[in-house]
Description:
Helices cover 39% and strands 16% of the residues. It is an alpha/beta fold. Helix 1 (15-24) crosses helix 10 and helix 8 (174-181) crosses helix 11.
Amino acid sequence: xxxxxxxxxxxxxxxxxxxxxxxxxxxxxxxxxxxxxxxxxxxxxxxxxxxxxxxxxxxxxxxxxxxxxxxxxxxxxxxxxxxxxxxxxxxxxxxxxxxxxxxxxxxxxxxxxxxxxxxxxxxxxxxxxxxxxxxxxxxxxxxxxxxxxxxxxxxxxxxxxxxxxxxxxxxxxxxxxxxxxxxxxxxxxxxxxxxxxxxxxxxxxxxxxxxxxxxxxxxxxxxxxxxxxxxxxxxxxxxxxxxxxxxxxxxxxxxxxxxxxxxxxxxxxxxxxxxxxxxxxxxxxxxxxxxxxxxxxxxxxxxxxxxxxxxxxxxxxxxxxxxxxxxxxxxxxxxxxxxxxx
Length: 342
């Protein structure tokens, strides 16, 4: 498959991260996280998110989300999320199956929840006939490529805590958000009242691995057991941990996420004067959403793979990655122009 715009999951492993895996491949080391690489990575997360942060490494994003929410809920609880949320659309019903909770999904055209959208579903607390709202889950960046501003996250945290609820962030592209907003990881999470963060790695140059980061230490009390039962405990944890060490070292994460964001901006800019392409969402991270003619889509799919987002309205999604280059963008735009003329 040529380097394209199908998904930031399609890219390979960043060379520095691959090198870190190789460097960890020496002698023997204790398993299940009792190794020096994991200890260093835990210390790194604490330095970055605050000393009260308690991180745990897991295999994938679905696992991170399920286990984050499992630690916050009972089966009679409900999780409030955007209609487009990954936990609602792209996790094959895993949250409902493994949590036993109801997802209350709220339509929001830009992928962003607001207190005003959530308040109407905050009712029937204490009524045994109704599920009890317990978690607000947001994605940063959102599934539509938009960003929550710090004040918007703070408002959601305040609302959650006012109702004795928690705020969870699905941060599969959290580094992209931090880079785009030119802030710090802590300033966009712990400082705003976020309780638990699913921190993404594989969409940002890692081979495998995400992290569940509890920003309130008491919430992590039983997580070791939840992780083990969910088959998310990696025996050779050092290879996962070494990747995060490299990811944070010398702000490699900024180079990785920053390039993906920059290329999405460039792609949007070069598409702006093509009448056959209508960009549908603000391009704030590393995603470009657009409506194109079905015939144009079929012609383009013969050269590049990408995903439909909304077939009914002809909306597609183009993602940029850590290794997307200006030349890749130029070639893709030229391919679109060629398909239009054909």
